[in-house]
């Protein structure tokens, strides 16, 4: 197991270097090393790496890790292998607030749109939690799924209505609709990156309790786990990780759904092992998706959300079919 984690770390490091090299103008590993450790103020390649490629690489790293771990927590919380952070209406709530802000004022700064996306994600998750989980019940996770699906549809309907009313605002929200890790100044998003790292670190103390919860609520209660507090802490972590990811990179689908399954296959069922693996796999997957997005149709660029959907949709259909076969 430890060898697999080492392999995942090495794979992530390789993806990081490749991300700094890739683009319309490919650079050598030596050039990347020079730009990071002994940059020149007048060298165009050094400026390209430090001001553009390094930022988008860091964003893809943090967003991928956050979505992978958030998806894992979501699947443990609901005991549903097909669950993902979008199930709580996080993406839909974030998009709705961004569309609303754009409709109210067309000149929306990046930091304001990002903050609005994060607030919308938190409000959506809070509403789902209040509707579905406010009373302790064995049906809580099922109510969570149903409430999240209903609220997601409602937010999408509101967003579409606003875009129909104000079609000029469509161009301003394309970033959040398609997903992208580019054109995000580090000065605007570093607080969100730091918040994501803190939330990822906070997952470790809860790993043992999630192991018990995965066996069932009755088992967890018998083991002395405070179910309500654990569920509340789980939802807060999901909101922080997935909400910050939406605020930084827009609507990126399937990462939170697929990555936990890959991590469990590689690292086993112990949360202390497969959650770190999910962070590594999610970060690597999003880095590779971004590399493909900016190199497939040069000099243009494919939205990274499209790339993750191209990979995730077939895998999702396979998971649904496998789950159906198991339930037969």
Automatic annotation (TrEMBL):
InterPro entries: ABC_BtuC-like, ABC_transptr_permease_BtuC
Gene Ontology CC terms, in alphabetical order: plasma membrane
Coiled-coil regions listed in the entry: none
Pfam families in the cross-refs: FecCD
UniProt entry tagged with the keyword Membrane: yes
Localization (cell): Cell membrane
Record key words, sorted: Cell membrane, Membrane, Transmembrane, Transmembrane helix, Transport
GO molecular function terms listed in the Swiss-Prot or TrEMBL record: transmembrane transporter activity
Transmembrane segments: 53-74, 86-104, 110-132, 144-165, 189-206, 213-230, 236-262, 274-296, 302-320
Top-level lineage group: Bacteria
Keyword Ribonucleoprotein found: no
GO biological process: siderophore-iron import into cell
Membrane topology: Multi-pass membrane protein
Family the entry assigns: Belongs to the binding-protein-dependent transport system permease family. FecCD subfamily.
Protein name (Swiss-Prot/TrEMBL): Iron-siderophore ABC transporter permease
